[in-house]
Amino acid sequence: VQVQESGGGLVQAGGSLNLSCTVTASPFSDRGMGWFRQIPGKELEGVAARCGDDRERYADSVAGRSTLSRDNAKNTLYLQMNNLKSDDTAMYLCAGGRAGILWGSLFRPNAYAYWGQGTQVTVSS
Predict the structure, then answer these.
(1) pLDDT in tens, 80-103
(2) What is the tens place of the pLDDT at every residue in 27-39?
(3) Which band of pLDDT confidence, cut at 50, 70 and 90, is reported for residue 1?
(4) Residue 65 has what DSSP assignment?
(5) What H or E segment, with its residue span, contains residue 73?
(6) What CA–CA distance (Å, rounded) separates 30 from 52?
(7) DSSP class of residue 10?
(8) What angle do CA 12, 107, 21 make, to 5 degrees?
(9) Residue closest to 69 by CA, chosen among 104, 6, 8, 18
């Protein structure tokens, strides 16, 4: 199984980005999928994730300005992030799990079996 992220880049504060995560695994639609971010020197942080039954979870730091969506035909999960802040600067990693990840486990890295290499997001103030 391969996980490939894209869509990161350099953006000014207040701008938007749409991150993409494509997984070469089937079935895709019933897998828990999540976005995490890593800041050097800090723990891996759950950002947004979705259960196979489409229940979602967002970190408080991005809730209200981030939206997950999924295209099952393309095996792709998207994370739209708006009103970006300098605190959003990080390496964003996508993770794919097996079917049946519980909502309460969505932000636990060990709940996921597959990880991408990450895409860097840098927000300039």
Answers:
(1) 999 999 999 999 999 998 777 889
(2) 677 789 999 999 9
(3) confident
(4) S
(5) none
(6) 4
(7) E
(8) 55
(9) 18
